[in-house]
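ok so i was messing around last nite and threw this chain in just to see what happens. nothing serious, just curious
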Amino acid sequence: MAVGETVAFTRTGLAHSSMHTDDDAREEFEVIPAVDIQDGEVVQLVQGERGTEKTYGDPVEAAQRWIDAGAETLHLVDLDGAFEGERANVDAIDAVIDAVDVPTQLGGGIRTADDAVDLLERGVDRVILGTAAVENPEIVAEISEEYPDSVVVSLDAKDGEVVVEGWTEGAGISPVEAAERYADLGAAAILFTNVDVEGQLEGVATEPVRELVDATDIPVIASGGVATLEDVRALAETGAAAVVVGSALYEGEFTLDEAQAAVEGDS
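result:
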């Protein structure tokens, strides 16, 4: 990606509005594979807790696997960075960025505008800000002014409250209140992770996603708990623009092609 260039993801719909039909949502909806990295390897955590991880090998191999399977976007997370507050898997993430030719969104350990700009200039298409955006909302506007449509704000929630610092501390604000704030500051999208169901393969909670979609005109990307194709369909029907899927894909509960077909009416 050239410096200053922005990329509109293929199905996440920058012109997305909550005023559409379920059929429209299904046509636009994208299934995005997760490549979460801890200690240089791909892992999946249960409810975001260290010590619960299951390992799935080399990040570049995983990323290429999903691209070969038809992924049009990749969701990258530096888990160590999320927990420690500074990027910790730089080499592994750089290797993925160098190896792939689809848009990428990256979160974990991005705490300053300079961090974000460095990543955007390095080739990441969108940066995901969680703790940094909660602690300093104006960082969203600062980055977005120079790089429009480049900031995704991560709203991770436990028991209806936004949590930060690797899901360890409550922020004292609801996801809906936060989403309204960041839309006004120029965020390109909201990434909503329901930590209550994350990584458990026990199904999704659609109502919190629907509430966010109804509360904001920017795209909502859902994450957490997807176990079946019906879960994917249910999230598409909320009006969300996309879903990030990790464990279900890595565990072979369904294929990426099956998931995308399920929301395009082919399955």
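not much to say yet. The domain at 22-263 is CATH 3.20.20.70 (TIM Barrel).
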